[in-house]
Amino acid sequence: MEIDIGTSNRQSPEARISVRRKTTTITFRIESDIIQRLKNKAEQDEITLNTLVNHILKRYIEWGMYAEDRIGIVSLARPVAVELFNKMDKEEVVRLATEVGKGAAIDLTLFMKGNLSPSSFIDWFLPRMKNSSASVASKSNSDGVQSYVIKHDMGENWSLYHKTVVESIFNEMQKPIHIETTESTLTLEITY
User: Fold this and answer.
1) Beta partners for 151?
2) I want to staple 181 with a disulfide (CB 3.0 to 4.6 A). Which of 9, 57, 149, 159 is the partner?
3) Rounded to 5, what percent of the chain is helix, strand, coil?
4) CATH number for the domain formed by residue range(s) 78-191
């Protein structure tokens, strides 16, 4: 079966809400059973097939193609990660974040984005959170503050770990950042 995933002037409701992006029409040959599964998923999520395929390709470009290169990221079931972090005391979490996590995050940002800046780090960090089953919402304020709320449901120590990693990286870049945490969320506020 052939499918045309490009768009012209027709846009889904999701696309009309977002910033208009230049698109290209292209045709691929895709196995029929894969198309049917994609159609089912698009219907389930109440989005167009085109939107779903664009989400999949974007996720691959932002994350998947690097993970496939075995850059040192491992998948871990949520209950296992939660249990590991819950067994650590606060000092162990901070030590892990500053002595290991910070360097790993910097290395991954440099590898995947080509440089380390506040924007390149955030461009790496947010997809990493999404690929860790977290939800991310962003909001721009009129005073130039960009806010990101990350809902993860991984526990207080998970929040503390990421707060410590992000703060230490931004401190190294001499860029102010304000981070608040709860047991299930991280809120980042950055002035650009």
Assistant:
1) 135, 185
2) 159
3) 55, 15, 30
4) 3.90.1520.10
Say if residues 164 and 97 touch (Cβ distance below 8 Å): yes
Q: What's the DSSP call for residue 132?
A: T
Nearest to 62 by CA among 29, 6, 109: 109
Q: Which two tokens stand for residue 41?
A: 């998923």
- Count of CA atoms in the C-beta half-sphere (13 A) of 114: 1
- All structural domains of the chain with their residue ranges: 2-67, 78-191
The pLDDT tens digits along the chain (192 residues) read 444 444 444 444 444 445 677 888 989 899 999 999 999 999 999 999 999 999 999 888 877 777 756 667 777 888 999 999 999 999 999 999 999 999 999 999 998 899 999 999 999 999 889 888 899 999 888 788 999 999 999 999 999 999 999 999 999 999 999 999 999 999 999 987
Alpha carbon distance 81, 101 (integer Å):
15
Structure tokens at 47: 């989005």
Element (H, E) at 6: none
Contacts for 90 with CB less than 8 Å, ≥ 6 apart: 157, 160
pTM: 0.74
CA 109 to chain centroid:
12
DSSP for residue 115: S
